[in-house]
Amino acid sequence: MPEYLAENTFIHRLDIRTKMLGFLGIIIFTFLFQHPLYQLLTVSLTGLLAFWIRIPLRKIVRMFAPLIPIVISIILITGFTFAPERFDQASNQAILFYAFPGERLGATVGGVLMGTTFLFRLFSMMIASSVLTLTTSMDDFTQFFQKMKVPAEISMMLTTAIRFIPILDKKRRLIIEAQKARGVNFNDKGIIGTIRAYLPIMIPMFINSILMANSLSMAMLNRGYGLSRTWTSMRELTFASRDYWTISLIVLAVTSAVFVRFKLHLGVL
């Protein structure tokens, strides 16, 4: 999960409630349509948002690079497991090829398209969540949880987890680089070999996590955390005109998508 990116873009200035509504709208879009072309529109939209807030390209590449084996597996599995009768259109019921002689275990066109849809859904969700976390400060997240009547303790746990995930990921990369410099081999074969190879990473990670938690608890005690049950904030959440215009656009887009899906029966396989 990326860290907060301090910028002054239009998305940064939006109220967190507007951003959460937009994130919910993207989720609705991703699960509303089955055809990959419609999912590609959602990926393009989230990609434009990422370009708008100036997310470095290396962050996106680093985020998607480990998913390449998963992507290939998803497309292959759905291609072979989705039977032709599951699709409404005859073109999607066609068999691309068979895995075994005798026309056994065929990969359907619809199955491959469905796997591509799952792939685009994954990409859309990852980019949208990155845009949300990169443009929203932890104070805004805390206030949002308060507005949703989430208990203060749970709100603190959630915001702390969101804040420290990228920090722990940075420490993990630093530990891996340090252990490689010391000559540690991470390519041992077998389950036992893999566990033994990653012990030099897991042990420092556990120690760093405990030290970070201890430092955080001392900082909270020094600042009087828990002394009062009334929480105050330096800045209250308020809607501006840009939020009302953005909310109207989100509602219009979601309503149009629902109309296209259920009234026009488009976007299905």
UniProtKB/TrEMBL annotation:
Signal peptide: none annotated. Its main location: membrane. It is found in: Membrane. Coiled coil: none annotated. One of its GO terms (cellular component) is plasma membrane. It is a multi-pass membrane protein. Pfam families: CbiQ. CDD domains: EcfT. Keywords: Cell membrane, Membrane, Transmembrane, Transmembrane helix. The chain crosses the membrane at residues 20-52, 64-84, 104-123, 197-221, 244-262. This is Energy-coupling factor transporter transmembrane protein EcfT. It comes from Desulfosporosinus fructosivorans.
